[in-house]
């Protein structure tokens, strides 16, 4: 392209000159053309690169966020995740806490049956468990920075819970020492029914037909389970033999009435646990209040009514382990009662009896029978119905 020059003059005052060069001249001159190309090329690349960098930056911003969220999940074990979910106060937390409490009580029963090395009096066993519960409750509340005795206004509830709870424990120990074991256990499992009745009276909780049917189904399963035990394991035979003595039959009747009284006070105690846990907003406070009274009282009863037995190392280790499990079971029980209606939570407690029977049948320590299997099936159906269909509405 040839060089050309045009000159434009405006009234003789300003002159504008336009010069065009062809490619050869621009390559020969090199300086200005290279400079202009160098100036133009970065401008074009800068216009294109931001379009790519914008999307690349947006993608890189999402990845760190996902890593931040997923990293803690990989560090927490599935068991810890389940425990946190069960404790978190979700819709199923109350029933799950009751189920965990029943499972822990079942584990305690298995340990006490399989690893007992020597016979320890009941009051001495209760003293060790209550003492371990007292220490662990105190440490728990200190670690989370809460006052030991809670707020001022619910202290009457905590005192009543301690008195009624220990009265129920004292009555049950007296009952289990004087009537057949199977009958005493059957009487103790009337506590969930008494708790539902007392919740209707004191807490004004409504009892639905489905909830009444669930409790009736579970207790019917208990009757199926213990029917054969009462008739063949010596329950009724011992009662008949006791009737032949002068006051044996009346002693059994009095002991059974005291066992029934233990169930009534146990039901009232559950209502007080729920009320106190809601008032203090901390279920461990109710556990501590009971242990403060029960530990010294059980120690006094140990030396007053029974002969103290020095436990061996294995027996003491087992008692301490059972004390730790008892503390966990009571904490889950108090938290479950705090979150859920008592009649629903009480029905889940029957799960312990079904698990105990199934374990005995599986380990051949209990002879399988149709009655036991029917009873276990009734309890599991009732508990499953409560677990899956119970928490449809918000927790009250």
UniProtKB/TrEMBL annotation:
- The keyword Transmembrane helix is assigned to this record: yes
- What is the name of this protein? EamA domain-containing protein
Compartments where found = Membrane
Provide the membrane topology annotation. Answer: Multi-pass membrane protein
Show the coiled coil region(s): none
**SUPFAM superfamilies from the entry?**
Multidrug resistance efflux transporter EmrE
**What organism does the record attribute this protein to?**
Gossypium raimondii (Peruvian cotton)
Q: Name one GO cellular component term.
A: membrane
InterPro entries from the xrefs? EamA_dom (IPR000620), EmrE-like (IPR037185)
A Pfam family the protein falls into: EamA
Ranges of residues in domain EamA: 93-226
TM ranges are: 92-108, 120-141, 157-176, 182-203, 212-230, 253-273, 285-305, 311-333, 370-390
Q: Can the keyword Transit peptide be found in this entry's annotation? A: no
The family annotation for this protein states: Belongs to the drug/metabolite transporter (DMT) superfamily. Plant drug/metabolite exporter (P-DME) (TC 2.A.7.4) family.
């Amino acid at each position: 392209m040839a060089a050309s020059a045009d000159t434009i003059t405006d009234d003789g005052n300003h002159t504008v000159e336009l010069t065009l060069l062809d490619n050869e001249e621009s390559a020969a001159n090199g300086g200005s053309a290279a400079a202009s190309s160098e100036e133009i090329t970065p401008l074009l690349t800068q216009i294109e690169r931001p379009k790519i960098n914008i999307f690349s930056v947006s993608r890189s911003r999402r990845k760190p966020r996902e890593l931040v969220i997923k990293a803690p999940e990989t560090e927490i074990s599935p068991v810890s995740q389940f425990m946190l979910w069960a404790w978190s106060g979700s819709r199923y937390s109350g029933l799950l806490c009751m189920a965990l409490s029943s499972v822990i009580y079942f584990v305690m029963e298995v340990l006490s049956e399989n690893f007992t090395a020597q016979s320890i009096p009941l009051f001495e066993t209760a003293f060790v468990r209550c003492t371990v519960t007292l220490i662990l409750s105190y440490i728990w509340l200190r670690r989370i920075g809460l006052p030991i005795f809670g707020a001022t206004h619910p202290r009457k509830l905590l005192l009543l819970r301690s008195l009624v709870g220990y009265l129920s424990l004292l009555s049950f120990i007296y009952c289990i020492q004087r009537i057949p074991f199977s009958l005493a256990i059957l009487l103790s499992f009337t506590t969930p029914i008494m708790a539902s009745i007392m919740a209707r009276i004191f807490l004004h909780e409504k009892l639905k037909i489905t909830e009444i049917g669930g409790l009736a189904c579970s207790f019917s399963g208990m009757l199926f389970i213990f029917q054969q035990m009462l008739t063949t394991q010596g329950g009724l035979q011992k009662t008949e033999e006791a009737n032949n003595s002068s006051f044996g039959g009346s002693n059994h009747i009095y002991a059974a009435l005291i066992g029934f009284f233990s169930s009534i006070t146990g039901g009232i105690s559950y209502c007080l646990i729920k009320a106190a846990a809601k008032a203090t907003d901390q279920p461990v406070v109710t556990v501590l209040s009971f242990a403060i009274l029960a530990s010294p009282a059980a120690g006094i009863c140990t030396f007053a009514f029974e002969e103290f037995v020095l436990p061996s190392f294995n027996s003491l280790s087992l008692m301490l382990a059972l004390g730790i499990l008892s503390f966990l079971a009571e904490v889950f029980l108090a938290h479950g009662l705090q979150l859920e209606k008592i009649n629903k939570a009480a029905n889940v407690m029957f799960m312990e009896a079904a698990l105990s029977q199934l374990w005995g049948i599986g380990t051949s320590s209990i002879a399988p029978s149709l009655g036991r299997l029917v009873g276990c099936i009734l309890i599991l159906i009732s508990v499953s119905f409560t677990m899956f269909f119970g928490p449809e509405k918000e927790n009250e």
